[in-house]
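Box 3.1. Reading complex inputs
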Amino acid sequence: MSSSELLSRQNLTGLLDSVDTFIFDCDGVIWKGDNLIQGVSQTLDFLRSKGKNLVFVTNNSFKSRAQYAQKFQFLGISVSPDEIFSSSFAAAMYLKLNNFPPQNKVYVIGGDGILEELRLAGFTAFGGPEDSNKTVDLKQNIFFEHDKSVGAVVVGIDPNINYYKLQYGTLCVRENPGCLFIATNRDAVGHMTAWQEWPGAGCMVAAMCGSTQKEPIVVGKPSTFMMAFLLTKFNVSVSKMCMVGDRLDTDILFGQNAGCKTLLVLSGCTTQSALQDPSNNIHPDYYTNKISDMLDLLDT
Amino acid sequence: MSSSELLSRQNLTGLLDSVDTFIFDCDGVIWKGDNLIQGVSQTLDFLRSKGKNLVFVTNNSFKSRAQYAQKFQFLGISVSPDEIFSSSFAAAMYLKLNNFPPQNKVYVIGGDGILEELRLAGFTAFGGPEDSNKTVDLKQNIFFEHDKSVGAVVVGIDPNINYYKLQYGTLCVRENPGCLFIATNRDAVGHMTAWQEWPGAGCMVAAMCGSTQKEPIVVGKPSTFMMAFLLTKFNVSVSKMCMVGDRLDTDILFGQNAGCKTLLVLSGCTTQSALQDPSNNIHPDYYTNKISDMLDLLDT
């Protein structure tokens, strides 16, 4: 069993020397809900001043890249949409790179961000927020119609999940030949509010697995799809990348699956005792409380 | 690989001679949605005239036994509530037989029938339909309160599934020490209407598995809990029981797990080609189109 090193002045100096691209998870690393984590802004400024590329990767598919850029701006951090990789965007890129026929439609269980990214990529998408208030009256003689031209159902976190959406998605996956079932991610829970975790995309995706008895294609972390896309875009070597995240089973596994260096921060959902529990078998290279520890360790 | 015999005059005569109790699944065997399947009434009359015990077992937890007795009556069949075993009742009996402390509460994701059976068994239950119109405003500073005295979450089919219920159930299972997670059943889909299948309890149960990352205790078919209860109640030998159902992975497996004879009917969700597909490894003793084939085969 390998173990993880607590981040120190010495190993941090080595890390900064060997890495040119930092990939940050957002929730639990940059922010919690709508609150910036302490020292984040100064830490990002410092890394930029050292010439590092910064990439922000989020499994939360609720927003599009443009909507995330607005969130960064609202929190006082300047980030370009090009530096942001959300699982909503990954779903659209998966379809694009796999030559999804543009005449086929995409049904969405999830937020507006998925619809926005799919439409930006040239696809016809529907569902999502439009279906949030739809109800089903289970009269015996009703027949629930669905669009036979739907060729993919994309499922992400959906706080407006309902039976209408589940039936719509289930009928497409079960009855439309070859219909893809794509999960933006499978996070069990997420910080939808500042003080609590709430059911994440893993809940809605599992619901669809339960009714369709099929397993989805996952495009977000820890799947390597997004990393392969990043590597092509930035044209860098994985050995010069470091994944920084707060979750062992998504962020750290994602980095390790790709061959990156990995840094766990304890500012999100993983505690030090969970990291060091004998049942845990995912070990980041380094761990620290929060990303601004970098500044404290270097006395900047 | 064993194979199944098509029901014939000869093997039916042998079956009737050797069996004194028939256990019927309801949906797809007795009715489809709110429509009685052809010849059911006469078949049940015939079996009663032969002195057979009849038991009706349903995985659909939406109703209580009393509500199912009303449904039978509405369809023109006289059945006593004592002959009915629903998974809603099974959930209540599971708690009772396992000495669930009555001062603890039960949170329900599912229909009114679960609440009714739990209350009849002396438990304090809440949730279900009461929470169907509750919404969550994910403001950053809200805190979602849950009752710390909830000691079990029971999940069944819920056409009014929503994020409020999922968060409530998830918090109880994740945060209340020792809180049980009970599934009435895990059927992927069911005939909620006459012409179509809709997401079943397997969908809501999977959603809870996705957010809690725990597996439930299942009390309905194919778990043997209900059968053990039936055997005690009727004091009969399993070798003299025949399970009649339309689903391989719940009904037939349930009968086989218990050691009963098994009869598959093709009037519900299983087709002859699914039965005979090489990938199927669940083989009932007998199969036929519908239960009234018994009458035709015997020329009654």
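In summary: The longest helix of chain A spans residues 163-175.
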